[in-house]
From TrEMBL:
Protein name: Secretion system C-terminal sorting domain-containing protein
InterPro entries: Secre_tail
Record domain Secretion system C-terminal sorting: where: 512-575
Keyword Signal: yes
Signal listed as a keyword: yes
Organism of derivation: Parvicella tangerina
Signal peptide: 1-21
Keyword vocabulary terms for this entry: Signal
Family matches, as Pfam families: Por_Secre_tail
Length: 579
């Protein structure tokens, strides 16, 4: 879906300097000897030489050194905990924890330069001629933060540095982002004494999250799919039937093996629940060299024609037989709705607020998302997810603006009444009706925002795990008097048609009990009204589906889940906890 390039008055970000000494690709460092631990597997293709998923924290055999500053590498099960948190890492084994540098929480504006280094024990790679590092990460850039992966074969006296994430902005990497580094040439001189180091440098930035680290034999033929998309720019995950636009599918293919890969293609299959409704593929890349990536786009577009949930399977393939097929496929989904327009993907990624550093209270702020209208329609209300760190009693309003092509600004159309958050709203959706219904004009973009006027009470807004196209999610800082791009995707939705007050997504208020639960979840709804019940985990994966008002989740892991209840009267979303 297309969105115009708007001229915004962006905030000027203060840049703190971090002094680092770099010389080309190698940096000399002297330090103590780390105890050796040998991990040796049989020399078979694709063998795992060394791995760590941090299920028990940072192992004692690793060297965790903070050279300067107040931050260090540490174990977490929740992610960043500062006032401007990045979404938690959704790695393959995130349920047992991961590691991070939490610069936002552990430092402060004007704080000291940060230099934190986490080093493996010695790793014996002598049985393998082709070796790579792989791990999963989540990273967002704030200012001059530097993320480096280092390799040494002489006890840390000299290092080969791989600075990664140079091109990453505040929008962040994929979550998770899969990193693969071929270190074969770097360790050839002494492969039985390999050290790997994660090196963080910053100064009150966001931080760096890492999990599922491994040193592995490099496979001959291995391509990886990443950066999947349903659109050329803005992706809306819930689209009213009246606003459906053609979808275009794309992804990047990365060659993480050591052989050239030929005739690499992207294949797409869209399923509406009853079967495939769209199958197509991209043109083939003639050649994808080792260590490189390239984009693939399906030329044909797909326009959904019915209300419902659509599952999209994207798969990359090549002429060669892939040695690791598990990383060739990605799954996405979107929904065509009666009334709900959502830019967030429905998966809770965290909560945001605007901290006043001077007083510890909240600054006045406005945060919102842009919605593109392609058919004349009416808007009646907006829904926002209130973060559970908010204070009961904190007040806010919801606004809707129309884009003025002549002035290249957004003009306020109408607002809601002021609303005071209740304790029952925390961690839930709140829907508010606009004072006047808004007539939406085809070909025009509308900015829907939440505005909080500051004060001692904090208001947190939930955001999704997806990143948005620059210019489609915005923040207004009243102290600075300017709009800026918002890298998170706020859970602020636009409801078209008739939607009742304090009802999420045109939904009927339903009771779900017990909550928390150890196994059985009951939904208080007449069976004649119930159409379907879907249960999603934190990653957005559908884990249960039924048409009954009683759901058994005793076989699921403990944690938080999202329940979507579709009835003849609308849609209800609930958050439930399995204990």
């Amino acid at each position: 879906m297309k969105i115009k390039n708007y001229t915004l008055c962006l905030l000027t970000l203060g840049i703190s300097s971090v002094s680092v000494a770099q010389s080309g690709n190698k940096i000399a460092q002297r330090g103590g000897v780390i105890p050796a631990v040998t991990h040796h597997d049989n020399p078979t293709r694709g063998a795992v030489i060394f791995s760590e998923d941090f299920a028990s924290g940072i192992p004692g055999t690793w060297d965790n050194t903070t050279v300067s500053g107040p931050v260090d590498w540490k174990y977490t099960t929740v992610g960043h905990t500062g006032d401007y948190p990045t979404q938690s890492l959704l790695s393959s084994t995130s349920s047992n924890g991961w590691i991070l540098v939490d610069s936002d929480a552990d430092n402060f504006s004007g704080g000291g330069a940060e230099d934190a280094r986490l080093t493996t024990p010695f790793i014996d790679c002598s049985s393998y001629s082709n070796v790579k590092i792989e791990f999963q990460q989540m990273f967002r850039r704030w200012q001059q933060d530097i993320t480096t992966v280092r390799v040494s074969v002489d006890s840390g006296y000299t290092w080969v540095d791989y600075e990664i994430n140079q091109g990453v902005t505040q929008s962040g990497t994929d979550n998770p982002d899969y990193v693969n580094i071929d270190i074969s040439a770097d360790i050839a001189s002494n492969p039985d004494s390999v050290l790997i180091q994660f090196w963080w440098q910053g100064a009150w930035d966001y931080g760096w999250q890492i999990d599922d680290f491994a040193v592995k034999e490099l496979d001959p033929n291995d391509i990886l799919i990443k950066k999947t998309s349903l659109s050329e720019d803005v992706t809306y995950y819930k689209v009213p039937e009246s606003q459906v636009q053609p979808l275009s599918f794309s992804a990047f293919a990365e060659n993480v093996g050591y052989n050239d890969q030929t005739l690499v293609q992207l294949y797409v299959d869209v399923d509406d629940g009853s079967g495939s409704v769209f199958i197509n593929s991209s043109s083939a890349l003639p050649l994808l060299s080792p260590g490189t990536s390239d984009s693939l786009s399906v030329g044909a577009v797909f326009t959904p024609t019915a209300v419902g949930l659509y599952d999209v399977t994207l798969n990359v393939d090549q002429s060669e037989t892939d040695d690791v097929t598990a990383n060739n496929e990605a799954l996405l989904n979107f929904e065509v709705t009666d009334t709900v327009y959502a830019i967030d993907n429905g998966v809770y990624g965290g909560q945001w607020w605007d901290l006043d550093d001077g007083s510890g209270s909240s600054n006045a702020f406005e945060i919102g998302a842009v919605y593109e209208v392609v058919t004349d329609e009416w808007a009646s209300s907006s829904s926002v997810f209130i973060g559970d760190n908010s204070d009961a009693g904190v007040a806010f309003e919801l606004n809707i603006y129309e884009y003025n092509a002549g002035t290249q600004t957004y003009d306020l159309i109408t607002t809601t009444d002021t609303y005071a958050v209740t304790s029952g709203d925390l961690g839930n959706w709140v829907t508010m009706r606009f004072v006047n219904d808004v007539e939406l004009t085809a070909g025009t973009d509308y900015l829907v925002t939440l505005v909080h006027y500051g004060g001692p009470e904090a208001l947190y807004v939930g955001y999704g795990t997806n990143s948005s196209f620059r210019g489609s999610t915005l923040t207004y800082d009243y102290d600075q008097g300017a709009w800026s791009n918002q890298p998170r995707t706020p859970m602020i939705r636009l409801n078209l048609g008739e939607v009742g007050l304090s009802v999420d997504e045109n939904e009927v208020e339903l009771s779900v009990y017990p909550n928390p639960t150890t196994g059985i979840v009951n939904i208080d709804i007449p069976s004649s009204e119930l159409e379907s019940v879907k249960l999603f985990d934190l990653s957005g994966k559908l884990v249960k589906q039924t048409k009954l008002s009683r759901l058994d989740i005793s076989n699921l892991s403990e944690g938080t889940y999202f329940l979507e209840i579709i009835s003849s009267k609308g849609i209800t979303n609930k958050t439930i906890t399995k204990e």
